[in-house]
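Section 3.1: Structural characterization of target chains.
Under the original work plan, the team committed to producing a structural model for every single-chain target entering the pipeline before any wet-lab resources were allocated. The record below documents one such target. The sequence was received from the expression subgroup and is listed exactly as submitted; it comprises 156 residues.
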Amino acid sequence: MFKFSVWVDADSFPTKARAFAVSHSFSKSVPVIFVANREIKSEKYVRMVVCQKEKDSADDYIFSHCAENDIVLTRDILFAARLVEKKIKVMNDRGLIFSRDNIDEKLREREFSINMAEIGLGGNKGNYYGEKELKKFSTVFREELQKHIIAEVYKR
């Protein structure tokens, strides 16, 4: 069992992406922790943390418990920005790894989308999650997990 963990902001993370993260992590003996405001159905070897139903309580739990070598999976860009500042590896369900280089742009895109929706010009095009999105996530997650394993084995 490795020392680092995979944390999943499980409330809104797509079921197929959660399932892949769990099965691949388990195959490598990497612990997975689901954190949500409600019970999320998962495999028996996934640790489930149910937080209070207050806004951002799951995010706050992950933020205060994750360590620098952990991986956090979330769709929440504001939460991702907090994690990037803490130097935590964070990625979304589409295989995007958030970093200091791209987080400001993603925050601006989020703000723009919200503004467009408020004036009636927004849509939900970004909410579709199909095989193409899952494949990209799977590829990047596999690579990232392997990097973390190598780093821990060789203490990099």
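DSSP finds five helices and six strands in the chain.
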